[in-house]
């Protein structure tokens, strides 16, 4: 990219200079509007999410049979919400600001099957594809007990079809494991930053792992190219898939029920803030869409990204979406936060959701590691670095009283607020790898 183009962007969009300088920034989105005004731009509606929820309910007997770890929840892949009061106190001190309300953690890090948020969208998309094939072949009816899919007959049937995906790790884990279990022949195209243990786990599950020396964008392109030459191959497109997005969106209604069971109120007097780590955008975008449908204008969704990979902030802030990448500014897209090392955001998600997202911020890898260490020492919960990206968010929001006042939120409401940090991964990190992360905390200071 030539210097004059970069200069032009900086003149037009001043925050671009801070992004280039890798400064942690918080940007409150001036285009954010009400659910009613923003919803038409999404191109999807509550019916679509309900449809996804029903599809997952049909598959619950299959999941329960094929993955014993989901049996206790009757084949529903869902995570718990926990309070983290010691962490809240520790962060009040770290950031020098007392947070009103309660800090909660949504433990998608401990979702069954693949131990990350990708167990929502990734698994859902493979199930939707399998259902379509089986229905078209006349082997399955919508009213059947889908437990029958866990059989040699169906494995034989699915083995005639291929699935391919490009991934930095966690999406590949979800799609690889579920696809192989159903019987598909599945290839996961892994970028250079993908962890060795994730590749090994996939191979152990019968997945074909293809390795690249380049980043996520290249792995996705290669996967897409190879799949294009094979009509029996279904390519899962993390950057543009509405199916994936809907799989994530189911989380909104589920959280609403979890809150109702626990007596957690969300209304004008009790606002909800949700902090979501963002890579390409499908996971946090889909979850945010589901949350907006469930809680309306009382939920405020905030995206978090590494200072080295701020692709969604850049795309939405400039309005250029997928027509700009962090590399165009000379930003290297190098981060220890697996899943967040994405240089170019999904154009679909940015355009669909830009009116429904309240704020975007960046934080350094060093900060993520510090938060990882604090959560371990204060709450004895271990996550992977990317899953800590949301943890700084509540204090970024609380620091901007002007923005809060503009939303009609004063001290009274903020003292009754719920701050939910979406922990997106880490539950399956091997102990030796976690020890390395924790050692890094002290190195990174
Ligand atoms: C994939 C991932 C994300 C972000 O999801 P996107 O859909 O890529 O935005 C966040 N955290 C973890 C651990 C992930 O694996």
UniProtKB/TrEMBL annotation:
A Pfam family assignment: PALP
Classification via PANTHER family: D-SERINE DEHYDRATASE, THREONINE DEHYDRATASE, MITOCHONDRIAL-RELATED
GO molecular function terms attached to this record: D-serine ammonia-lyase activity; hydro-lyase activity; pyridoxal phosphate binding
UniProt keyword annotation of Transferase present: no
Obligatory cofactor(s): pyridoxal 5'-phosphate
Family to which the UniProt record says this protein belongs: Belongs to the serine/threonine dehydratase family. DsdA subfamily.
Keywords for this protein: Lyase, Pyridoxal phosphate
PROSITE patterns, per the entry: DEHYDRATASE_SER_THR
UniProt domain Tryptophan synthase beta chain-like PALP: residue ranges: 98-396
Protein name: D-serine dehydratase
Organism: Serratia inhibens
GO biological process: D-serine catabolic process; isoleucine biosynthetic process
Keyword set includes Nucleotidyltransferase: no
Quaternary assembly: Monomer.
N6-(pyridoxal phosphate)lysine PTM positions: 118
EC numbers for this chain: 4.3.1.18
Reactions that this protein is recorded to catalyse: D-serine = pyruvate + NH4(+)
């Amino acid at each position: 990219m030539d210097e004059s183009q970069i200069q032009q962007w900086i003149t037009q969009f001043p925050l671009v200079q801070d992004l280039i300088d890798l400064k942690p920034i918080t940007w409150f989105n001036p285009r954010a509007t009400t659910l009613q005004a923003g919803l038409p731009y999404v191109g999807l509606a509550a019916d679509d999410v309900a449809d996804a929820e029903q599809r997952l309910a049909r598959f619950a007997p299959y999941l329960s049979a094929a993955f014993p770890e989901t049996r206790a929840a009757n084949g529903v892949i869902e995570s718990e919400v926990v309070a983290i009061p010691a962490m809240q106190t520790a962060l009040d001190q770290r950031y020098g600001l007392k947070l009103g309300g309660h800090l909660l953690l949504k433990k998608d890090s401990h979702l069954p099957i693949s131990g990350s948020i990708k167990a929502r969208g990734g698994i859902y998309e493979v199930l939707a594809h399998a259902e379509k094939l089986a229905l078209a072949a006349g082997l399955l009816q919508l009213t059947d007990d889908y437990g029958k899919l866990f059989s040699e007959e169906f494995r034989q049937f699915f083995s005639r079809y291929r699935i391919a995906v490009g991934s930095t790790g966690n999406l590949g884990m979800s799609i690889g494991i579920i696809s192989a279990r159903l019987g598909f022949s599945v290839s996961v195209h892994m970028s250079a930053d993908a962890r060795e243990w994730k590749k090994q786990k996939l191979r152990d599950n019968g997945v074909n792992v293809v390795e690249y020396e380049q980043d996520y964008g290249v792995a996705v392109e290669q996967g897409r190219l190879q799949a294009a030459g094979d009509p029996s191959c279904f390519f899962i497109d993390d950057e543009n898939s509405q199916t994936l997005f809907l799989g994530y969106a189911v989380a909104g209604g589920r959280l609403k029920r979890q809150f109702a069971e626990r007596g957690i109120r969300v209304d004008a007097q009790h606002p909800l803030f949700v902090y979501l780590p963002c890579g390409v955008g499908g996971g946090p975008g889909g979850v945010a869409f589901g949350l907006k449908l469930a809680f309306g204008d009382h939920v405020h969704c905030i995206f978090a990204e590494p200072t080295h990979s701020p692709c969604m902030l850049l795309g939405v802030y400039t309005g250029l979406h997928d027509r700009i990448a962090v590399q165009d500014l000379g930003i290297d897209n190098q981060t220890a936060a697996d899943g967040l090392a994405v240089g170019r955001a999904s154009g679909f998600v940015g355009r669909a959701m830009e009116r429904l997202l309240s704020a975007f911020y960046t934080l350094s890898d060093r900060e993520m590691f510090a938060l990882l260490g604090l959560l371990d020492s204060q709450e004895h919960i271990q996550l992977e670095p990317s899953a800590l990206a949301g943890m700084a968010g509540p204090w970024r929001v609380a620091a901007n009283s002007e923005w809060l006042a503009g939303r009609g939120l004063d001290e009274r409401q903020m003292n009754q607020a719920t701050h939910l940090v979406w922990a997106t991964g880490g539950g399956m990190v091997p102990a030796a790898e976690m020890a390395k992360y924790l050692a890094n905390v002290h190195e990174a200071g």
